[in-house]
Amino acid sequence: MAAGKDLEIGEGQEKKKKLIIIIGAVVLLAIVAVVAVLMMSGDPAEPVAAEAGAAETAVAADPNASADKGSALYVSMPRPFIFNVPGASKDRLVQIKVQLLVRGSNNEETAKVHIPLIESTLLRTFSTSNAEELITVEGKENLKKKALKEVQEALVGVAGSEVVEEVLFTGFVMQ
């Protein structure tokens, strides 16, 4: 009988030790997690506010500075451009899907507001090309540069700034 009690007491103390070790480990992990979160988050509010104020001042001084500042955003044209181009032996049908690279949410909103103007300008620019030009990589690059220049000129006239940084062809098919 006495041997049975010693065995029960030994098992009970061993369970208590395991329980204390597990609780200690959980508390230690919680403390480490809290310290890690505090170290990673820090207190960046003041430097970020100072940088934002400097950026707003720069944009106010130069309206075109918004094209240099801000994150890259993409504005999709709602439909692909489909048009005919003359070729040496026959006319070709071309389909181009376009997205516009803009910087900052202000330019994104401005581009979205003026999508009809942008579409008209791009279609006019695309339709002046010919099949021989569009077959080559250089011809496509030249068309993109010409399209960018035309879109920027059109937007300067109505929005007061270039707004668009780059015209991207995301799909190009010629038949």
TrEMBL record:
Domain of life of the organism in this record? Bacteria
Q: Which residues cross the membrane?
A: 20-40
**Which Pfam family is one of those matched by this entry?**
FliL
Swiss-Prot/TrEMBL GO biological process terms: bacterial-type flagellum-dependent swarming motility; chemotaxis
Membrane topology type: Single-pass membrane protein
Q: Which InterPro entries match?
A: FliL
- Give the record's GO CC terms: bacterial-type flagellum basal body; plasma membrane
Compartments, record wording: Cell inner membrane; Cell membrane
What broad class describes the main subcellular location of this protein?
Answer: membrane
For this UniProt record, give its keywords in alphabetical order, as a comma-separated list: Cell inner membrane, Cell membrane, Cell projection, Chemotaxis, Cilium, Flagellar rotation, Flagellum, Membrane, Transmembrane, Transmembrane helix
Q: Tell me its family.
A: Belongs to the FliL family.
Q: Which NCBIfam families match?
A: PRK05696.1 (NF004285)
Q: What does this protein do?
A: Controls the rotational direction of flagella during chemotaxis.
Protein name per the record: Flagellar protein FliL
Organism expressing this protein natively: Rheinheimera tangshanensis
Q: Which gene is transcribed and translated to give this protein?
A: fliL
